[in-house]
Design goal:
heterodimer, A: alpha/beta, Rossmann fold, 2 domains, seven-stranded parallel sheet, five-stranded parallel sheet, 18 strands, elongated, B: alpha/beta, nine-stranded mixed sheet, two-stranded antiparallel ribbon, 6 helices, 15 strands
Chain lengths: ~325, ~250
């Protein structure tokens, strides 16, 4: 089988999971596309998963109430072994890339990390991935009975529901006790669309001027056009914005249809997180800012003057 | 406690990347210690300076000759000794973890520090793969770390925010910016570092076979339109941009 470990939040599959389903469906290779749903009280997620996959395996228990890398790795590896999976697909999220290597070691399976494409030819699996701060595209391959892959979010068009619902099966998992204790948690909630799922993102950099300006201009424009909000590392380091909004090498990687950068200079570390966006828009008063080199559209001007005009114009 | 801190020598982020044939060519590029690993080196030193019971701090590099420079940097920053497993083969994380795990055992390491993401190959996998081989817990993307007895605690970033954690040692911790500000090696320390041990090991000793082949590398640049509007008249510029986004790019309603 082609095993996919489902990612879900708030009782729903993430877009990244539907992208992995599409990747598995189109990669070639043998066996049913199988979604493994892990969690507690995940019946609704399992039902949704059955609309997309030929079979759904459900691990529903208190031990799976919260994500833990060792627990998730044990569950995924056990199912991959029992089902003789040829492919194990795991989301290229921070958590996915944290436990996937453990799965690979448990299965003694090669690991293709952060794949942007996927094809299976016999027992050889080939993928592309970005390296050197996303400036180089490498093609990598591995030949083995089982290959572990993390799939970069935003790289595949999400799968559509299938005509017939897949079968659901409950699975018994032998899980280790979680050794890492979470003693506190700060979740950065936003009413806006999640950054990695947004079609349009408005990002602010230091050039916006102040936290207040960020709220007025970056959030103001984002709310006017229904976009997600991003921030540069400089802005996050300065404490203006939460880390969850950071785009770049050490933040999130995004590829929206439109990325609107306000007061962003365009350091390579930032470009590595958004350079694959379909359209890039830059507004910056410094005409020499590197962001203009990668921009499709740009305005050389002061964010404080241009953005209010943009918000006003967008009302029409 | 014995700390193993992993380092690599990589092209500077601002360096121009070029591809020759089907592989990245580092000829002429400015090389530096991987910034993410440097946080690990610094943290090991700070744990010792902060009074944790640190018996030894060993820097480890696996890879081509250039990594010697990263080890020299770590030695000059203050680690006790260095081990270089020299190979020109590009090993994947699953293979590398075999080597790291064996050395960790030989060195009686109880804490392994490694950068959260490689600056060149963008991989985040080595820490977790090593932890699995050793049967240890792991904490990734750590930006605050404390050691008390046999317990580590701190904070780290997760998908949708951050968490405070505690975990038993031995453990693998992956490091990132925010954890500390790495020190600059001083000239006396650079001189002193020259007398510290830098052991060379052969990869053959460790029986690590590569499982992932790189079959091609290319620089794909997306052609951008670079249509720049003068913002002297903010209202006109804003309206023009909006028109382009709505009617040419068709990305806004």
């Amino acid at each position: 089988m082609k095993l996919i470990v489902a990612e879900h939040a708030g009782g729903k599959l993430t877009k990244a999971t539907l992208e992995m389903v599409a990747a598995a469906q189109n990669a070639g290779g043998e066996g049913p596309v199988t979604l493994l749903v892990l969690g507690q009280n995940v019946a609704a997620v399992a039902n949704e998963a059955a609309q997309y996959a030929e079979q759904v395996l459900v691990g529903d228990s208190a031990a799976l109430a919260a994500y833990n890398p060792e627990v998730w790795a044990a569950a995924a590896a056990q199912i991959a072994q029992e089902g003789e999976a040829s492919l194990v697909l795991i989301g290229g999220s921070r958590s996915g890339r944290e436990y996937a290597p453990r799965v690979a070691v448990k299965l003694d399976a090669p690991y293709l990390e952060d794949a942007t494409s996927l094809s299976v030819n016999g027992s050889t699996v080939q993928a592309q991935r970005y390296t050197y701060l996303a400036r180089v595209t490498e093609t990598v391959e591995a030949s083995a009975p089982t290959v572990t892959v993390t799939v970069k979010p935003g790289s595949f068009a999400p799968a559509a529901p299938a005509a017939a619902a897949g079968e659901q099966y409950d699975v018994e998992l032998e899980l280790p006790a979680a050794r890492t204790q979470v003693t506190g948690r700060s979740v950065e909630k936003t009413s806006r669309v999640a950054l990695t799922e947004a079609d349009v993102i408005v990002t602010g950099g230091r050039g916006v001027g102040s936290p207040d300006n960020f709220a007025t201009y970056v959030e103001g424009l984002a709310d006017r056009i229904g976009a997600g909000v991003g921030a540069t590392r400089a802005v996050v380091d300065a404490g203006w914005r939460p880390y969850a909004e950071q785009v770049g090498q050490t933040g999130k990687t995004v590829q929206p249809k439109a990325y609107i950068a306000l007061g962003v200079s365009g350091a390579v570390q930032h470009l590595s997180g958004m350079g694959k966006s379909k359209f890039i828009v830059a507004i910056n008063k410094d005409a020499e800012a590197p962001i203009f080199k990668v921009a499709d559209y740009g305005i050389v001007g002061d964010v404080n003057q241009i953005v209010p005009a943009l918000i006003e114009a967008a009302k029409k | 406690m014995n700390i193993l801190t992993l380092v690599r020598q990589v092209p500077d982020a601002e360096a121009r990347v070029k591809v020759s044939g089907s592989a990245v060519d580092l000829e002429g590029a400015t090389l530096v210690i991987d910034g993410m690993d440097e946080y690990g080196v610094e943290e090991a030193l700070r744990l010792r300076e902060g009074g944790a019971n640190v018996e030894s701090i060993t820097a480890l590099a696996i890879g081509p000759k250039r990594n010697e420079d990263a080890l020299r940097t770590a030695l000059a920053m203050g680690v006790d000794r260095a081990i270089h497993v020299e190979t020109d083969e590009k090993l994947d994380a699953v293979a590398l973890s075999r080597v790291v795990a064996q050395i960790a055992q030989a060195e009686n390491a109880t804490l392994i520090l490694v950068g959260g993401q490689e600056a060149d190959w963008d991989s985040q996998a080595l820490g977790a793969a090593t932890a699995e081989r050793l049967g240890w817990p792991q904490l990734t993307w750590t930006n605050e770390l404390k050691v008390e007895g046999d317990t580590i605690s701190g904070r780290h970033d997760v998908d949708d925010g951050n968490e405070s954690f505690s975990a038993p040692l031995p453990a693998v911790v992956t490091t990132q910016q925010g954890l500390n500000e790495p020190r600059y090696p001083t000239l006396p320390n650079i001189m002193k570092a020259k007398r510290k041990e830098l052991r060379k090991d052969s990869l053959d000793t460790y029986g690590a076979a590569n499982t992932v082949r790189v079959v091609n590398a290319e620089i794909q640049t997306r052609a951008r339109m670079n249509r720049v509007i003068d913002g002297k008249d903010p209202q006109a510029a804003a309206e023009q941009l909006l028109d382009l986004l709505r009617n040419e790019a068709k990305v806004l309603a």
